[in-house]
Amino acid sequence: MKSMAKYVLALDQGTTSSRAIVFDKKGNIVSKAQNEFEQIYPQAGWVEHDPLAILYSQFQAVSSCIMQGGISPEDIAGIGITNQRETTILWDRQPGKPVYNAIVWQCRRTADICENIKAQGLEDYIKDKTGLVVDAYFSATKIKWILDNVPSARELAEQGRLLFGTVETWIIWNLTGGSVHVTDYSNASRTMLFDVDNLCWDKFLCEKLGIPMSILPEPVPSSKIYGRVSKGILGLEFLEGIPICGAIGDQPAALFGQGCFEAGQAKNTYGTGCFLLMNTGKTRVKSKNNLVTGVAWGIGDKVEYAIEGSAFNAGSVIKWLRDELHMIDTAKRCDELAESVPDANGIYFVPAFTGLGAPYWDMYARGTIVGLTRGVNRAHIARSVLEAIAYQVTDLLEAMKSDSGIDFTELRVDGGASVSNIMMQIQADMIRCSVNRPCNVETTALGAAYLAGLAVGLWKNMDEIQHNRVVERVFEPETDIGKRNALYEGWKKAVECSMGWAK
For the segment 74-91, what is each residue's pLDDT rounded down to a tens digit? Predict the structure, then answer.
């Protein structure tokens, strides 16, 4: 590390935008910039990105962030990268050009390939080896699709020219002038090809899916010097020689940024959906409730595992109240209405707009409001929406408790919708433990920054990082247990009403 260096640069490459944030040693934001890029929908259910657009938007964000913040490159100790996880890019190493657009994690085009995998009886093997359920969400079937449908792809693979990567792999390869082809363990864990116990690619699965192992990047820890920024990268010439030394998928990055370093610590991100992750320490927990598991991060020769569950619709339901029903004009108004009534007046809202995720896994479920009486008004509906988000997270936590045998003492929260005080209070009441909200809710980028800083000695250890976390507010359970249990039973009945509706 350079003697002057006092900052870390985090690249936060997301689904709709690329961001760059510079953090200081205390974990405070010094400067940030963001660029959106185009979403490509070639046909129904298909989602793509232009890998070069990802790259340019990311490099532009870096350049703006450094310039606007008046930051001297000598002050940057290292670069950490966090990314949308399953999105798949294949490129020809010689010109360095993609052979096809990036197939995004949301893309459903490989559902038939997944059905075929299930028909071959590979589900249990995949779950056992990779910790994942068979789904079009993950990278493996996206790789297979490109190999089978892009005319030059297999030929280039046979010539040893084709490379695969998730987004952090693509960025590192480009930043190092094509000299480093790596993926960190957390991103490798989302490919459906990675043996999460032995930390290597699974040869049997690669053969079954017809994926040549020569195209796969080297799996590496999340905190390590992978290489340095190459000379002459257009617009980033000033970063030459700075180590690239942290890489991690977005959700485990938020777990790290929240300081969930002990087994049993969990965080929930309240965004469009909810992503709940719990650190399970050195042990991989095999889920019996359709949650997924994988490596959260690797530091040195040690890895930590996490168990993960997601609810598909959370913040999106508040947007629905605003944009489709015109019941509110801002998210804040939803809170105000919900606070104006003591309860939801006996109604339950199940936001199964796109089916139900864990632990129900019912793609035929649809959104439902039950328990309506003549006395229900829009304030009750607003409250039922906030309660629904909290109930879904409760479902996920209960599943995690059942899988892990760990009892939670607190849930750390972040994401746009976590600013709602009333929803966080409802959440604490339902899960019967503290809900802990930090001052800095940029936890994803922060996690990548911390991992990079650890690799170059900006932070000595995780204890030092833990001290940086400043709590903005803690919500404690207030509702008595009898009332809580009755409310939760009502929610489960409401969920049953929504299931199988579209079948």
Answer: 999 999 999 999 999 999
